Amino acid sequence: MAAADSNGPWDLPTLKRTPAAEFGTPDGLVRPVHYSGEPFLGKPTRIFAWYAQPSGTGPFPGVVLVHGGGGKAFRDWALHWANRGYAALAMDLAGHGPDGRLPDGGPDQSDETKFRPFADSEAREMWSYHAVAAVIRGHSLLAAQPNVDANRIGITGISWGGYLTCLVASLDDRLKVAVPVYGCGYLADNSVWTQPRFTPMTAELRQRWVQNFDPSSYLAQVRCPILFLNGTNDFAYPLDSYRKCIRLVQPALRTVSVIPRLPHGHIWTFPEVDAFIDSHLNSGQKLATIGPLQQASSQITATVQSPAEISEAMLHYTTADGPWQNREWKSIPAAISAGAIAATLPENTAAWYLAVKDTRGITVSTEHSERGE
Question: Is 281 exposed, middle or buried (0-12, 13-18, 19+ CB in 10 A)?
Fold first, then answer.
């Protein structure tokens, strides 16, 4: 890590060591595993996960899979990646095993637990601390498996798992690629939790939470390629907070895919996720690259390069103001030629962005722009 980087409350050298683990009986390509976690309330903890590995001897690339709110260690998610040629670890982050709560599990994943008051000395009792530690320990366990290539491991997470992916990608410099889906930082500024959780906090507590646990405090430290995938109307992570997070990452490392009305859920079949990870870990074809938006009056343009044929170029826009979750988005074709996309903004457009889709069905976009910027 660079000298100016922050480890927050995490002891990274310890988390990068291979944790003690007990593997269960394989069932096809998948087997259960329990591995050691961080102490909670003075007692040792264990973390449950599903480990999946393709047939054969490898060495296989690996991927760490981080579930969201209301989720668990998803066996089928790990199997999805094993069927694609990856070793995968999908861990539980709410203190549960395969059949209910573990007697030695860590904190639960309720909002009350995530946002409860805490002193500086209690940071290591918080859910976010334990969840990040469990993910980094999971990476260490995955990297230690004999048929895994420790130098080809990435991470993806969904919703709260996307939030955690932003944190872990900022902290764990061993990762080679990251894809947070939906989740981001600036939760205290604008998110589904701003009013019910952050607004009632004292200014001191809010600052302490953000400094320790908001991805905005760490994302500038990301050193691996990262794809930010979200929808225009996500109920939890709105576009203004999302864009601020994107801009914290070095431009050369970041790729953006904003998709109109993308559904929110534990969905691990988005082709953008698979293709982006493949392109950095498994010799897959790269995604398109779109330059920043340029504007002259109502004309907007962006450069584009794509190793795959582009099948569609679009201008996505909204004339509405107000909460991002409630805005109606419209789409019209954009012109593409000579390595550039171009479109004319309709009258009264309030926010807009350009996007391309290639013949594989992979969408890459610019970040959005807003009227008056």
Answer: buried
Q: Which residue ranges in the chain fall short of pLDDT 70?
A: 1-4
- Output the pLDDT for position 250: 97
Q: What is d(CA 64, CA 46) in angstroms, rounded to the nearest whole number?
A: 17
- Report the distance separating Cα 172 and Cα 319, nearest Å: 40
pTM for this prediction:
0.97
Cβ pair 208, 120 in contact under 8 A:
yes
Three state DSSP letters for the chain? CCCCCCCCCCCHHHHCCCCCEEECCCECCEEEEEEECCCECCECCEEEEEEECCCCCCCEEEEEEECCCCCCCCHHHHHHHHCCCCEEEEECCCCEECCEECCCCCCCCCHHHHCCCCCHHHHHHCHHHHHHHHHHHHHHHHHCCCCEEEEEEEEEEECHHHHHHHHHHHHCCCCCEEEEECCCCCCCCCCCCHHHHHCCCCHHHHHHHHHHHCHHHCHHHCCCCEEEEEECCCCCCCHHHHHHHHCCCCHHHEEEEEECCCCCCCCCCCHHHHHHHHHHHCCCCCCCEECCCEEECCEEEEEEECCCCEEEEEEEEECCCCCHHHCCCEEEECEEECCEEEEECCCCCCEEEEEEEECCCCEEECCCEECCC
pLDDT of residue 372: 86
pLDDT at res. 3 = 45
Residue 318 identity: T
* Rounded CA separation 142/63 (Å): 8
- Residue 4 has a pLDDT of 65
Closest CA to 314 of 330, 298, 292: 330
> Exposed, middle or buried: residue 43 (CB in 10 Å: 0-12, 13-18, 19+)?
exposed
CA distance between the termini of the chain: 34
d(CA 186, CA 177): 22
Report d(CA 78, CA 82) in Å as an integer.
Answer: 6
